Every structure is written in structure tokens, then in C-alpha cells.
Inverse folding.
């Protein structure tokens, strides 16, 4: 069941990379996307064990705090040889300083420690939209790929420099934003969201 959004919503994230990507994705729909930090909204604790659960926690908190519909993303990298880790803890692997160079090195070291040559992984995104009246929806997308080492590219953010999406020979960190937006996990979740709430 679809429910159209008004012309203003909150992007319930304090991650500048995610905010930038979501703002870019929503811009063609003529909706003003206001970052949560601009409204002075805090970050709720991500207490759930799934991407969808954490996305809903963030979207609901921002909708209640702002009185506007809120869009939240929870996403991460799931590495097959590491049993799906870091998964929902992807940001936490970067530590309090959000050092993704450290997080990427940790993945590399743990993969070497397994002795496995399997480098398959996927980026998963759950995009949740919540309205102040308590209604909410979740849309999910993922993209399969391979991990490489050393990291390549200074574009994107997070684990992008070590992830090569299936069918490509460049990392997300080497892709221009327009190219990544056309096929990323976030773009795939956003397409489902747009069909239900923006069309």
C-alpha cells in the first residue's frame, strides 16, 4: 500500500556520506530533504539486530522529534567468509572516530586469518520511512560483489574502496557518484521507496 510524502522530510542520519547520497537520490522528486543534524535531532541507539530494525529506530525517532516524515538508512557490508560480519555493526568496526581505513584493514586481517580465498560480499541497505502518526515502511536493496586489497579510490565513503560490484572492474570508491547511484544497494532500496511513496 502506497502513501505519498509531502514536500519536506527529514533525513535521519548523521553520516555525511549517507546524507549526501540520500539527498542526491531524492532531489529529482522535488522534495526538500533536511538532515537531522540541521534540526538539532540526536542519534538514537541502534539496538536492533537487523538493518530493517535499526533503520526503523532512527526513522521513528526523527519523525517524532521533528513532526515531519523521516527517512532513515541502515546499511552495511556483509562478508561471506566472515559469517556475514561486520553486517549491522559495520559502522562500529570503524570505531568512535569513524576510521574506515582501520575498519577495512580489520576486514582484510580477519579474511587472511580464516585462510579462505572467498572474497564474496554484499552491501545491504534497509531504507525506512516513518510518519509522525506512527505509520512506517521499510524497503531493502542489496548489491553483490567481491572484496579487493589494497583499497582503491577516494570517492564514496565507508567500505567503498574495497568493494567491487558484480559485473564491474572498479570499486565503489573509484566510481563517479552518478554511476554508483544507478546501481548501489541504497539506490535499489530507494527505487522501491520511490515507487511506493514518491510516484
Amino acid at each position: 500500500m502506497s502513501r505519498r510524502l509531502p514536500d519536506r522530510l527529514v533525513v535521519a542520519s548523521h553520516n555525511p556520506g549517507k546524507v549526501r547520497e540520500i539527498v542526491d537520490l531524492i532531489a529529482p522528486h522535488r522534495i526538500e530533504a533536511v538532515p537531522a543534524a540541521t534540526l538539532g535531532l540526536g542519534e538514537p541507539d541502534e539496538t536492533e539486530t537487523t538493518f530493517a530494525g535499526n533503520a526503523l529506530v532512527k526513522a521513528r525517532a526523527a519523525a517524532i522529534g521533528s513532526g515531519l516524515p523521516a527517512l532513515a538508512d541502515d546499511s552495511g557490508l556483509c562478508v561471506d567468509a566472515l559469517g556475514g560480519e561486520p553486517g549491522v555493526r559495520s559502522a562500529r568496526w570503524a570505531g568512535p572516530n569513524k576510521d574506515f581505513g582501520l575498519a577495512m584493514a580489520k576486514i582484510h586481517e580477519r579474511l587472511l586469518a580464516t585462510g579462505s580465498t572467498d572474497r564474496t560480499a554484499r552491501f545491504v541497505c534497509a531504507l525506512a520511512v516513518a510518519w509522525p502518526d506512527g505509520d512506517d515502511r521499510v524497503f531493502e536493496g542489496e548489491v553483490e560483489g567481491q572484496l579487493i586489497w589494497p583499497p582503491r579510490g577516494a570517492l564514496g565513503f565507508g567500505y567503498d574502496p574495497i568493494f567491487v560490484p558484480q559485473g564491474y572492474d572498479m570499486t565503489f570508491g573509484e566510481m563517479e557518484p552518478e554511476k554508483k547511484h544507478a546501481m548501489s544497494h541504497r539506490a535499489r532500496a530507494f527505487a522501491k521507496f520511490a515507487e511506493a511513496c514518491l510516484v
In short: Strands lie at 8-11, 32-35, 70-79, 120-130, 136-147, 163-165. The chain has a mean pLDDT of 93.
